[in-house]
Hints:
With 311 residues, this protein is mainly alpha-helical. It has eleven helices and three strands, in the order βαααβαααβααααα. Strands 2-1-3 form a three-stranded mixed sheet.
Amino acid sequence: MQNQSFVTEFILLGLSQNPNVQKIMFVVFLFLYLATIGGNTLILVTILSSPALLGSPMYFFLAFLSFLGECFSSVITLKMVVDFFYERKTISFEGCMMQLFAEHFLSGAELIVLTAMAYDRYVAICKPLHYSSIMNRRLCGILVGVAWAGGFLHSIIQILIIFQLPFCGPNVIDHFLCDLHPLLALACTDTHILGFFALANSGFFCIIIFSLLLVSYAVILFSLRTHSSEGRRKALSTCGSHIAVVVLFFVPCMYVYARPPSTFSSEKTVTVVYTILTPLLNPLIYTIRNKDVKIAMMKLWKRLMVVSDRK
């Protein structure tokens, strides 16, 4: 690495170089970060403290998704919020690689978890009599393990691609994080071949999984024809939440990664959606119309109030 790369740190330009705008952004993104951590923590604690919810595969995956959201937001949003304090926003070469690894590791795991949640809804709606035997604890544990392994494999491939590139200057990244396209643009060599592999690893993978998810939800919606009106209403409510989260996560990812490496002024805005807004909106989307989670939250609140009164 030291023989190939002379760059020891990168300079991040962030979302804006205007000091007044940065002050406003600091307040906005600090609020978004605290809201993301608070919302996901509330979901996680609620599910973990409720045996009924934790025993359900859907809520088991939702708790895991909330945990990923907290980690993802801490890796991306917290770093950006801290950078608002500095006029010169820098990140070491090693720190850049770690952020790149964590970003793709967590997003890859989230992609697989969303796929597992779609499969869970398919079994629950299309094969209700076999649901308990298919979606058992063992399978749920295996799917979570696959999510971790898949995220690691996806991320390590990206890191190996970037590690092969020499960085001899310039070292200015026109972004608020270390990501594939900005780093490919700074490499002191032709990146067309490696850029294609990075595109295949991220972009094509997103497109394939997104297409499969759309097909699975189409099958689910088609099968609802034979259900009662009440059953259709409940299933549509649940599937609607899943579809909203899937679209919110996959569409920006495909826009950023499913195209040849180049610089678009809108890329940073789109990146904000899936790196900052998606972890914030996931808890809201899944709980705003979910009676089970609301009831569990009320029970948790009552238990906390009882403990507080005893003290």
